[in-house]
Specification:
This protein has 119 residues and is α/β, with parallel strands linked by helices. The protein has one domain: Ribonuclease H-like superfamily/Ribonuclease H (Nucleotidyltransferase, domain 5, 2-Layer Sandwich). The protein is built from three helices and five strands, in the order E-E-E-H-E-H-E-H. The two termini are 22 Å apart.
């Protein structure tokens, strides 16, 4: 468990002067300690943004997953090939969750919400 991390995106609706706006929240979860690292929030999770968030995650000084060897994520297309390559360059192997896994879908997001709300 010490070498495992997971990542996922969830959405939040924010009321702005233009109405409701959907924001995407990217986070990393170290599975052994259940330590959550908020990676970033954006309205448009483009490939360039996701790649930069992966670079930040493995940063030497403050990267949230720099000591992990495996990264678990779902099959969302937002987790692009370049993100996996950035993580692989730091020795982190990305593992996609199996397709159509109802007990795994949203599991990281559920853990995130439970951990944040339990404190």
């Amino acid at each position: 468990m010490a070498v495992l991390a997971g990542t996922d995106l969830f959405t939040v609706e924010v009321l702005t002067w233009r109405g409701l706006v959907t924001y995407y929240v990217l986070f990393f979860l170290h599975l052994e300690t259940r330590r959550i690292t908020l990676a970033g929030i954006t309205r448009h999770p483009t490939e360039a943004w996701m790649t930069q968030m992966a670079r930040n995650a493995v940063d030497d000084t403050c990267g949230g997953v720099r000591q992990c060897r495996y990264m678990l994520h779902d099959r969302d297309t937002k987790f692009c090939r370049t993100c996996d390559e950035v993580l692989a360059s730091d020795g982190i192997r990305c593992r996609r969750l199996p397709p159509r896994s109802p007990n795994l879908c949203g599991a990281l997001g559920t853990i995130f919400k439970e951990e944040c709300l339990s404190n």
